[in-house]
Design brief:
Elements lengths: L17 H4 L7 H60 L10
């Protein structure tokens, strides 16, 4: 069962924060457009950071899985050689005494 490691919350890109609302008032439509564009770019930057983090984590998991599979492959090859060596031996006949 997968667990949530990250939570992304979309921001309202056209509204000011409560902190900034009292000090900053938009004078015209250009200010609104600039603010909205900056908000979109900030949200895109956050999303990009999160995606890089996810991809780095996936890369680490894949590298770990590759190392484990190589070790397992080495064990299987060793076992095949051992079984082949045992199969080539002639069985010794032992006398059964009663």
């Amino acid at each position: 069962m997968p667990f949530c490691k990250r939570t992304l919350v979309p921001r309202d890109i056209c509204k000011n924060d409560a902190r900034r609302q009292s000090t900053e008032i938009f004078r015209d439509l250009a200010d609104v457009c600039e603010f909205t564009l900056c908000s979109v770019l900030r949200q895109l930057a956050d999303l990009s950071r999160q995606s890089v983090s996810i991809l780095e984590e996936l890369e680490g998991e894949l590298v770990s899985m590759c190392h484990r599979s190589r070790r397992l492959e080495g064990r299987v090859v060793s076992l095949q050689r051992h079984v082949a060596a045992l199969a080539c031996k002639t069985p010794t006949k032992s006398k059964i005494t009663m």
